[in-house]
Design a protein that fits this description.
Elements: E1 2-4, H1 7-16, H2 20-24, E2 31-37, H3 39-45, E3 59-62, H4 71-74, E4 77-82, H5 87-96, E5 103-109, H6 113-122, H7 127-130, H8 134-145
Antiparallel strand pairs: 1-4, 2-5, 3-4
Helix pairs in contact: 1-6
């Protein structure tokens, strides 16, 4: 599973699959959610496994060189390595044995999609920037030129 260190990049991904039309028709209480993982506290409380040959359940955080994956740098990526199917439940259960939760949720109003995406664009956080190449350029042009 991939994570980002940037709350702005996370907001981009939270709104990415939602159209302006869907957002404008959303109910007052409809939200998109960003999950925040306190990886610094997780690393401090739990040993991180660097090898994939392990028998026990684990979630480890890895930071890798962006060799042949230029998106990692642009998206400010960190990755988790795990053999757990339900990562959220596993981390939540581990939180119960500690005093601090590792996961937090930030909910943003779905109706604010158009405004948020516009503000992210001012910061240079667009599909064209995060996905270099033809796909990212086309997605960004669609966002800019069509109010879908």
């Amino acid at each position: 599973m991939d994570w980002t260190y940037s709350p702005y990049v996370a907001a981009f991904f939270a709104f990415r699959g939602i159209t302006n039309k869907l957002a404008s028709c959303a109910a007052e209480g409809d939200k998109v959610r960003i999950i925040v993982f306190d990886q610094a506290q997780w690393r401090a409380d739990w040993s991180q496994i660097k090898q994939l040959v392990i028998t026990g359940l684990h979630v480890s955080i890895g930071e890798y060189l962006a060799i042949e994956n230029e998106r990692m740098i642009l998206q400010q990526a960190a990755s988790t390595i795990t053999n757990v199917d339900d990562i959220e439940s596993y981390i939540t259960n581990k939180s119960k044995s500690q005093t601090t939760p590792y996961l937090y949720a930030i909910d943003l109003p779905m109706r604010e999609r158009k405004h948020v995406v516009q503000e992210l664009g001012y910061m240079g956080i667009t599909a064209g920037a995060l996905f270099p190449g033809l796909d990212g350029a086309c997605e960004e042009l669609k966002e800019r030129n069509f109010d879908l």
